[in-house]
Specification:
single chain; alpha/beta; 6 helices; TIM Barrel; about 15% strand; 8 strands
């Protein structure tokens, strides 16, 4: 796909080879969806037995060349995810906070940090990832969604006990 001024290449045979190798190593892949058609590729990998359930999706919105950072795009994808999937909404730049909050309100998980946005709020640059994480934790708590610890996340993702973080 186009990715801003460049391209983002994922040849199908390479993706299958990498998925098989991750499976051999006991690695749980994060399935990133930058556009709606990417979901079909992920579902095909699951159908071929190359990724294990529960599938873990990151829905990435607002990258030039990918899907827009809109509530409609998020809803459309989330309704197509397989039951039991773990997912998070990620949006770039100005869309980061509203789309992440909408994803939390819809029952998804969240990710934030300076990779996705450099602003704490309009005109106020974030000084650290910690500031952005605390802002999002406050939103999660306001929605009565307590942020999960590493053990809870490992359980949700069904990571093998010997691979789960401490």
């Amino acid at each position: 796909m186009n990715f801003d001024a460049g391209e983002f290449r994922n040849p199908p045979d390479d993706v299958r080879r990498l998925a098989a190798r991750m499976q051999e190593l006991g690695i749980k892949p994060e399935l990133e969806i930058y556009d709606t058609g990417h979901l079909e590729v992920c579902l095909q990998l699951a159908a071929e037995g190359l990724v294990a359930e529960p599938l873990a999706f990151s829905i990435v919105m607002g990258v030039r060349g990918g899907m827009p950072a809109t509530p409609a795009a998020l809803v459309e994808l989330v309704t197509r995810l397989p039951e039991g999937s773990v997912w998070q909404a990620i949006a770039i730049g100005r869309a980061n906070l509203p789309m992440t909050a909408i994803g939390l309100a819809m029952g998804g998980n969240a990710r934030t940090g300076m990779e996705d946005t450099l602003m704490l709020r309009r005109g106020v640059p974030a000084q650290s990832n910690a500031e952005l994480v605390e802002r999002l934790a406050q939103i999660a708590r306001a929605l009565e969604r307590e942020p999960a610890g590493t053990a809870e996340v490992a359980a949700r993702l069904q990571l093998p006990a010997d691979r789960a973080p401490d």
